[in-house]
Write a structure and sequence with these properties.
With about 350 residues, this protein is α/β, with parallel strands linked by helices. The protein has 12 helices and 15 strands. Strand 4, helix 4 and strand 5 form a beta-alpha-beta unit. The mean pLDDT is about 95.
């Protein structure tokens, strides 16, 4: 039987990369790509780079609406053929307003769950969560843990947590794999990334002070979980299909992470050719970023600072074990950071990659 993959989150960067890799692994597979009407034009352009409209069919819909806003005819057609569901659609902005985050991340996931449970030929439901459903937990966080009474740093974290709770509630009803990535960077081989957020905010910050002695931000002794997108894609494609992946949650985090101070210094040396030489208290930086004019000038979201104080240590034992059996491992940050920074330097004036800071 021909596999049919149903995706939300297309034409997003990770979803598109996953689709390209799945085609390499299964050339005869079919794809049904759920796209919000507002994204139709962009999706059509991206689909044209993938292949034929017959193999990669765009389906207009809306995860925030009951039945994904699909016609009964389209729903019936999908139920008759879909074998894999990859749910990536979400609002990933750390500064996202609560109502929008809840509607897309929580209500949207509830609606996708309902759709998934209606698929008689389903082989695997792959849900993209985040390692940061751990919220403000400290110490070692296991892949097998979720509900621990934690609080959250922002609405992105809290709504992704609520969404994963919903997904875990159906794990006895459908074959399920949950992916929890860390902070996803660009490709480890090319540096390619669609937008300069997350650790790229550090690069944007350093650009503003390149001619001055560069400070560290805070003590920086906590661990940073940076992972390149090609590792996330390769690992996900593997875990979505191997028998050992069914029913499991995976931290796609760096099993040998660098501290925030080490990662910051790596970026600084690659970007500016010099190391930081003094330390600025993180509270002072956060306070400055609370001033809209300063925040917009340096082009850094204040929510970013919290991730330089993250006290969680993400245990990725299940991911390491199951991926090692397939010859897959996370690249070392020191080996690819130079390519990430080089890509940023080449494209830092590209307005489409710059995240608007409010």
């Amino acid at each position: 039987m021909q596999d049919v993959y149903f995706f939300t989150g297309f034409p997003g960067f990770i979803a598109t990369r996953l689709i390209r890799r799945l085609v390499e692994l299964n050339a005869g597979a079919q794809f049904r790509l759920l796209v919000h009407p507002s994204q139709r034009e962009r999706a059509e352009r991206e689909r044209a780079t993938l292949g034929s409209a017959e193999q990669f069919q765009i389906v207009e819909g809306d995860i925030t609406r009951e039945g994904l806003a699909l016609t009964s005819e389209k729903s019936d057609a999908l139920r008759g053929c879909v074998t894999y569901v990859f749910h990536l659609a979400a609002v990933y902005d750390l500064a996202v307003p609560k109502d929008l985050a809840y509607d897309v991340n929580v209500n949207g996931t509830r609606n996708v769950n309902t759709f998934v449970k209606s698929l008689p030929q389903l082989k695997r439901y792959v849900y993209f969560s985040t390692a940061y459903v751990s919220g403000d937990r400290t110490g070692r966080v296991l892949e097998t843990e979720l509900v621990k009474g934690q609080n959250f740093k922002n609405h992105y974290e809290s709504t992704k947590y609520e969404a994963e709770v919903l997904v875990q509630s159906v794990r006895e009803q459908v074959p399920l794999t949950i992916i929890r990535p860390g902070v996803v960077m660009g490709d480890s081989k090319t540096g390619e990334t669609p937008k300069f957020d997350g650790p790229y905010f550090v690069m944007r910050f350093l650009d503003k002070f390149a001619s001055l002695p560069i400070p560290y931000v805070g003590r920086g002794d906590v661990l940073m979980n940076l992972v390149p997108v090609d590792y996330v894609v390769e690992a996900t494609c593997c875990l979505a299909h191997v028998e050992s992946g069914e029913g499991k949650v995976y931290h796609l985090t760096d099993p040998r992470p660098y501290t925030a101070k080490q990662a910051y210094e790596l970026i600084c040396r690659e970007l500016l050719g010099k190391p930081p030489v003094w330390t600025l208290p993180s509270g002072l930086v956060y306070g400055a970023l609370s001033i809209p004019a300063f925040r917009k000038w340096v082009q850094v979201e204040r929510e970013t600072i919290a991730y330089f104080q993250e006290q969680s240590v993400y245990d990725a034992s299940q991911a390491e074990r199951d991926l090692a059996a397939q010859g897959i491992q996370c690249p070392d940050l020191r080996e690819y950071m130079g390519r990430e920074v080089a890509y940023y330097k080449e494209h830092r004036e590209d307005r489409e990659k710059l995240i608007a800071v409010r």
